[in-house]
Amino acid sequence: MWDIISIVFGAMIGSFLNVCIFRLPKEESIVWPGSYCPHCKNPIKSYDNIPLVSYILLKGCCRHCHTAISFQYPLVEGITALASLILFIKFGLSLSYLFYFLFVAALIVITVIDLYHQIIPDVISLPGIGVGLIASLIIPEITLFNSLFGILLGGGSLFLVATLYHWLFKREGMGGGDVKLLAMIGAFLGWKAVLLTILLSSLVGSITGIIVMLSKGKDFKYAIPFGPFLSFGAVIALFYQNEIILWYLRYKG
Ligand SMILES: [Zn+2]
Question: What is the whole-number distance in angstroms between the Cα of residue 236 and the centre of ligand 1?
């Protein structure tokens, strides 16, 4: 029963995340006005705004102008619902569940906005650092020291890499947004997870970069945003950091 509630709750939050994804880059209010069709601007009635269900009932089109609704909407709702369920199974009905769900929800918004606009909004990452720090005082999974050290290591190390890159290649490599995002990841997950996130995101990011360069040619100018890779690394670290560290220690020894 609780599993179903966590899925419904997740889908509802996912619906709100879609609003954030659409409006935050345009600096519009996320609470007012209510949802509207981006094409014909008609307000979306509450019965047409049920996460996942409405998309299927309306066959993916606006009721008024019949313009196709972006597949991003049900996709974000579905992923958020799934994230809610998996976190609920892992943490149960607890504050840990709520804080980590908030964290993953922030990563989802950051990932999609970064893919579209190549920016990571400060309005998510900066409060996120504070929320992660507060969470460390409340939930048993992380200590205040670990969270603080995570912020310093996350912010500091990427800042160092970004400065070095800029100095070597005389152009912007990693944005300041990535630095603040990694500081937020450190606040929620601690310093070991920061190292793991850097490792995983660099690995997956380089492989993706090579594939893109091979298929699009070397002169391909679109800079691949790094936020989605950091988010991916952070989610893996959230679920598997202990297993991966144990595996590494055993492998080394
Ligand atoms: Zn419409």
Answer: 38
Using the mean position of ligand 1's atoms as its centre, give its distance from the Cα of residue 42 in Å: 6
How many helices (H) and strands (E) the chain has is answered by 9, 0
Distance 34 CA to ligand 1 centre (A): 14
CB 202 within 8 A of CB 232: no
What CA–CA distance (Å, rounded) separates 213 from 217? 5
What tokens were used for 82? 């799934």
Distance, CA of 101 to chain centre: 11
Which amino acid belongs to residue 241?
Q
Cβ contact 110:227 at 8 Å? yes
- CA 238 – CA 246 distance, rounded (Å): 15
Q: What is the pLDDT of residues 58-114, one digit of tens each?
A: 999 999 999 999 999 999 999 999 999 999 999 999 999 999 999 999 999 999 999
Which residue's entry shows tokens 């912007």? 172
- Cα dihedral 138, 143, 146, 149, rounded to 10, equals 60
Rounded Cα gap, residues 55 and 139, in angstroms:
37
Model confidence, pTM: 0.92
